[in-house]
Write a structure and sequence with these properties.
alpha+beta, Herpes Virus-1, 1252 residues
């Protein structure tokens, strides 16, 4: 919904017609809102102060060269690394020295190592918490600690250079290793936490011995056994101590290539897999920063993880409350905390990134340090401390200071970029992603507002003065555009510095500070901001100046903007009402009257006075007001929706209910109401009471604009206040109870007006409205049948014109409630007016389904509508199941229009007709469209194959359609799936011959058991084709193969079949030319070879296997006339191939016989030796078969039989019932048990697996 623009829709069937389009042209305003700072965050979200700063050629950081550093360090070697403290910074050199400089570039002291170690450079530097002690790790692994409080004297011999400080301690446990991390342990001066690439983490603690000499002891805290899967990368302890954190409970964080661990003393209190597999590459770099007790950050190559921790009461166990992740496209080399919500990190390519976020890390600033050429070193060449970066470059040391918020603003102001400066202030207040610590701004919004308020005031005045002065000579429109842009930013910002509901006092100061000739420009800008909703409260002084400006320019729209956009409480009601009356601002006048006096009925009463000509009685509208200019319909529409006119603000519920009830009692009153109440006077709409209509105020609205008036009535009917079944709790919720006006009462009022009016346009409009709402509220509205008949007659006999569609929907709604008794005239009228949808509703409701279906088909033929005809047929057949006469009529309609019905969905039609009446399928035989008929019959045979394949008419027709519309393969599959006895043989053969479907004909004849006749058909076709010159090699080969396959299946007629085929082949071979003979030779050879092999098998290899067929071939007249010399090469080659095949077969049999001879002997040997038995007991009787407990007689008999070596001994052994039999499967049984179960001597088998 736009600003105070409403678009309502009223359901009318499937269409949705806008009935509030007349409201859209008003341009009503709904500036009933105040934009707060949180609303402005989106407006300035895309403004990045750092990017705007770069557009001016400046960077967010200002670099200064420290030229004296390298000069002083030249004697001690090349600078390698830097480490800062608050009062000084240290530089490690390539010769093992640590130089202490203050920020004025003065060398304060030099920390030297022994001469033996001086050849190794400084790798790591660490400074104690109080800054009095420094430790350094060399590339050689040696670690030293120095005390900076040692007195240093200037040495005159060294040109005033300070005397070097010697180390307190020299720690040698890490020699020949690479030190990974170096840090003072807690707040102690001589305790270090050190890790190296051997995977060991040590705590070295300095102490005094009995002779008061400083020495140290070392303790191995943890050892990580480095390997290809896990290596130690970094470790760190907490830098700062906090209240409640005891010194003896120091914590250490460790990062390995697999996980992150926090140790308390030597126990693991938190372990986390960081999940960085680095795409299978080795992880080379990790960093840890732990400043805050509950916040810890660590990086593994290119991935940064921030953990928010929670601790138990004794700080011995940690848990992760929140985990934030951020990834980069390169490795991270440094991590530092700016605040509890901001980090600064450095990447391998010398980029500095500032990250911020409490719930999600986002980039707030990025710096590229490639321009300053940092030293190419693996050590720390750039570090951060106290809003500064200290960098070692190839030319000199540099210190970079981040610009503060005031310095950034100054850059914009110096370049006259005032709008950018103002937007910059807005971003400081609304963009929480900015690094406030670096900008020297407070992180809390209220304190930032105090910090920026005074600079903003000065900047706003300066920017306005500059724009007014610089654009004084410009075109007025250009000057106004510049001022509007600047004023918008100023006003938006000004609301950030005032509390909600306060007036913008600063605007008054701007207007007073401007010159008189500039006042009009500022006033226009301010009024535009008011119209945009940016300003809703002004001081009386500013408001007076704005009204004066509007009156001087006679600008009606500006006055309207002021009245509708500003808080009405600050307006002078009398002045505002007079202005509205003067400039005919009726929506503003209605609004002021409503909100100032909480009176919503007087405007309607004043409008009635104007309508009736009693202008002198008006107290709101002026007497010369034109009723056509007063938005009374819009006013009523808003109120009946519960909205404040002309704003889209919701009226309080109790007040809204009271307003609605009062309006209903007036609008739908059947008599003149008393107005003013208690005065005894009546609110007349006509000059005399005799001419007053029955419903005077409703009639007045219908006369003025029937469509808008019915919109008001429509809203009334939708109001839940008119629900007669509202619960008592709902009615008692406010001071207003249920209205006396009901939906039935409103409809009856409209019916009375409908009967009395003579205007056909209004009559039709009322009839349509009543019809649709009666259907919409059936539980609240009831009409008599006579009333419905009158409404039907009115709508069907009226000239509807553009309301035809609406009228037809109304007719459908009424016909769904009642069918007239005398419907003949109604049907005639509906056909004349082409109300076909309504006519279909009538037929459906009156159960005239034959006419219903006939009309739907008629409309489809004329492209009048898109109907699902099959669904209509299904509905008609279903609903006439108990009305035989009507069902017969429906079937006759289906028969007449069968082709049209099945055209859309023939597959679905088959299913419908099969379910309701299968006799309808016979109509398919008369369909002229062959493709449609084929599609229908295909589905019919698929659905109910057996029922219709036996029907000669259907099956014959379908075979013919298959010949015409389908590939022959589909026809063949059909013939194979059909029992040939169910088909009418002669018609089918005739069809197949007519369409030349030879292969299908052969398949059909084979199915009829006429195989020889099928061969004859093939040979006749081949002969005719060769004779006529239409011979095709591939087709002929296929037919020859098919013929040989058929002949193989012949029993008694196979000789005749071979004779026919061979005769045909020889005749064709004699007819064909040389090139064609060569192509056809393969088929002939196949047939002859197949003939010889199959004939030999059938005749058991006898000589007559070739005689009878060949005799018939050579005795045939066709072959006798051929030149046998032409056939000699082919026959010789075939006989040669046959001889070779017979020799191959003979050799194969010999090979198999020789191979099987040894297998038979091995088998006989195994049988004699017997098989390995698996079971120890007989599965039948359960007695022992072998082993301990076996009867000795069994062994004696077996030994006698084995010793005799004669077959008689074995036979006598088998006749003994005590002996056992073991089968090849390993199962054994007593012989007697097998005999008792019915087995015989020659047919023993295993009872378990049935094997012999």
């Amino acid at each position: 919904m736009g600003d105070a623009k409403i678009k309502r829709y009223m359901d009318i069937g499937d269409q949705r017609t806008p009935i509030y389009g007349w409201l859209e042209s008003l341009g009503l305003s709904s500036n009933d809102h105040d934009t707060r700072p949180e609303d402005l965050s989106d407006e300035f979200a895309n403004f990045n102060p750092f990017e705007e700063l770069r557009k001016t050629g400046n960077e967010p950081i200002k670099w200064s060269d420290l030229t004296r550093i390298y000069q002083s360090a030249a004697l001690y070697g090349r600078p390698k690394c830097v480490y800062p403290a608050r009062a000084y910074f240290t530089i490690g050199t390539s010769r093992g020295s640590v130089l202490i400089f203050d920020y004025k570039q003065i060398l304060k002291c030099t920390l030297l190592v022994s001469e033996e170690q001086a050849i190794s450079g400084i790798a790591k530097i660490s400074i104690s918490l109080d800054g009095t002690h420094v430790s350094a790790a060399l590339d050689s692994g040696d670690i030293f600690i120095w005390n900076l409080t040692t007195p240093v004297e200037k040495d005159g011999r060294n040109k005033g250079e300070p005397t070097p400080i010697q180390p307190l301690l020299h720690i040698k446990e890490h020699c020949y290793t690479k030190v990974l991390s170096l840090q003072f342990y807690g707040a102690r001066h001589t305790a270090l936490l050190v890790s190296d690439d051997s995977g060991k983490i040590w705590i070295h603690s300095g102490s005094r011995n009995r002779l008061w000499q400083l020495t140290y002891s070392s303790r191995l805290l943890k050892q990580i056994f480095n390997g290809p899967e896990k290596r130690l990368l970094a470790c760190a302890g907490r830098i700062k101590a906090e209240k409640g954190f005891r010194s003896d409970k120091n914590l250490v964080a460790i990062v390995t290539s697999q996980d992150f661990v926090i140790y308390y003393q030597e126990e693991t209190i938190l372990q986390l897999e960081h999940g960085n597999d680095n795409f299978g590459l080795p992880i080379t770099m990790a960093r840890i920063s732990w400043v805050f007790h509950d916040l810890l950050a660590f990086s593994v190559d290119d991935r940064l993880t921030v953990l928010r921790l929670s601790w138990n009461s004794d700080r011995s166990h940690a848990a992760i409350k929140e985990k934030l992740l951020w990834s980069c496209d390169e490795s991270l080399t440094e991590i530092n905390w700016l605040s509890s919500q901001a980090l600064i990190v450095m990447t391998a390519s010398s980029r500095v990134v500032v990250l911020k976020g409490a719930t999600e890390l986002s980039t707030s600033l990025t710096l590229d340090l490639l321009a300053i050429n940092l030293l190419a070193s693996n050590e720390k060449t750039c570090t951060f401390l106290n809003r500064q970066l200290i960098a070692l470059t190839t030319s000199c040391a540099k210190i970079g200071s981040f610009l503060s918020w005031s310095e950034i603003l100054l850059v914009f102001v110096q370049r006259a970029l005032y709008i950018s400066a103002l937007k910059c202030i807005a971003s400081f207040l609304t963009n929480e992603r900015l690094p406030f610590y670096l900008l020297r701004l407070d992180s809390h919004l209220p304190k930032r507002v105090e910090q920026l308020e005074s600079p903003y005031r000065n900047l706003a005045i300066a920017s306005l003065r500059y724009v007014l002065k610089s654009s004084a000579n410009d075109d007025p429109e250009i000057q106004l555009a510049k001022m509007k842009e600047l004023f918008h930013v100023v006003v938006s910002l000004d609301r950030l510095f005032v509390k909600e509901g306060e007036q913008l006092v600063f605007i008054e100061g701007i207007l007073e500070a401007s010159a008189p000739e500039q006042g009009d420009t500022l006033a226009q800008c301010l009024i535009e901001e008011i119209s945009n909703g940016a300003v809703s409260i002004l001081s009386p002084t500013v408001l007076s100046r704005l009204f004066t400006f509007c009156e001087s320019h006679q600008d009606r729209q500006m006055v309207r903007t002021l009245i509708l956009s500003l808080k009405w409480q600050q307006l002078s009601i009398d002045l505002a009402i007079r202005s509205c009356q003067q400039y005919k601002i009726y929506d503003g006048l209605l609004y002021l009257w409503n909100v100032a006096f909480t009176d919503y009925l007087s405007p309607l009463a004043d409008f009635v006075y104007l309508y009736s000509g009693n202008n002198e009685r008006c107290q709101i509208f002026s007497q010369d007001s034109n009723i056509n200019d007063i938005p009374i319909f819009e006013y009523l529409a808003f109120l009946l929706r519960g909205w404040q006119f002309p704003k889209c603000r919701q009226i309080p519920n109790d007040l809204s209910l009271k307003i609605k009830k009062d309006l209903y009692n007036v609008i739908f009153s059947g008599a003149l109401v008393e107005w003013p109440k208690g005065s005894g006077k009546r609110l007349e709409t006509c000059g005399s009471k005799q001419n007053e209509p029955v419903y005077p105020y409703l009639d007045m609205l219908l006369v003025l604009d029937p469509a808008k008036a019915l919109t008001i009535v429509h809203d009334s009917l939708e109001d839940s206040l008119l629900d007669e079944d509202r619960s008592e709790s709902e009615q008692a919720g406010g001071s207003v109870t249920q209205s006396d006006v009901t939906r039935q009462f409103i409809i009856e009022a409209l019916l009375d007006i409908f009967q009395l009016t003579t205007k056909m346009n209004l009559k039709l409009l009322l009839a349509n409205f009543i019809a649709k709402n009666v259907v919409k509220y059936p539980q609240f509205v009831v009409l008599s049948t006579d009333t419905i008949d009158r409404l039907l007659l009115t709508i069907s006999s009226s000239d509807c014109g553009p309301r035809k569609e609406e009228s037809e929907e109304s007719l459908q709604a009424l016909l769904s409630l009642h069918i007239p008794g005398d419907s003949k005239h109604l049907v005639t009228a509906l056909r004349e007016k082409q109300f076909y949808f309504a006519l279909m509703t009538f037929y459906s409701r009156s159960q005239q389904y034959s006419h219903f279906l006939d009309l739907a088909l008629e409309l489809q033929r004329s492209n009048f509508g898109n109907y699902d005809i099959l669904e209509i047929v299904k509905r008609s057949l279903k609903n006439t199941s108990h009305a035989p006469i009507e069902r017969t009529l429906v079937k006759s309609v289906v028969d007449r229009n069968f082709c049209q019905i099945i055209k859309c969905q023939p597959t679905l039609a088959v299913q419908y007709f099969q379910d309701f009446d299968p006799n309808i399928h016979y109509n398919a035989l008369s369909v002229s469209d062959k493709a449609l008929k084929f599609q229908y019959l295909s589905e019919l045979f698929r659905l109910v194959f057996e029922d219709y394949v036996k029907n000669s008419a259907f099956s014959t027709t379908f075979v013919e359609l298959l010949c015409q519309e389908a590939p022959e393969e589909e026809l063949i599959n059909f013939l194979k799936s059909v029992n040939p006895r169910h088909l009418d043989k002669e018609p089918v053969l005739s069809i197949l011959e007519r369409y030349g479907k030879l292969e299908s004909l052969v398949v059909f004849l084979c199915g009829m058991k006429a195989n020889l006749q099928a061969v004859t058909r093939i040979t006749d076709y081949l002969t005719e084709a060769a004779t006529a010159g239409t011979w095709n090699c591939q087709t002929s080969k296929h037919l020859v193969f098919l013929a040989t396959h058929i002949i193989r299946g012949l029993e008694e007629e196979h000789i005749a079949g071979w004779a026919k085929l061979l005769t045909c082949l020889m005749v064709i071979y004699g007819i064909l030319g040389e090139s064609e003979k060569h192509k056809f030779q393969e088929a002939v050879r196949f047939a002859l070879f197949d003939f010889t092999t199959t004939s030999r098998i059938r005749c058991n290899g006898a000589h007559q296997s070739f005689c009878m067929p060949l005799t018939q071939v050579f005795e045939s007249k066709e072959v006798m006339f051929l030149k046998l010399a032409n056939m000699q090469p082919l026959l010789t080659e075939v006989l040669s191939d046959l001889s070779v095949a017979q020799q191959q077969q003979s050799f194969s049999f010999k090979i198999i016989d020789n191979a099987s001879f040894q297998a038979v002997r091995d088998y006989e040997s195994l049988v004699q030796k017997g098989w390995l038995i698996k079971n120890a007991e007989c599965e039948v009787c359960g007695n022992k078969l072998w082993g301990i407990g076996l009867d000795s007689d069994v062994f004696i008999k077996w030994k006698e039989a084995r010793g005799s070596g004669s077959s008689n001994g074995k036979d006598s052994l088998l006749e003994d019932p005590k002996i056992l039999i073991v089968f090849r499967c390993g199962h054994g049984f007593h012989l007697n048990c097998l005999i008792r179960l019915g087995q015989t001597k020659l047919d023993y088998f295993c009872l378990l697996c049935k094997s012999a």
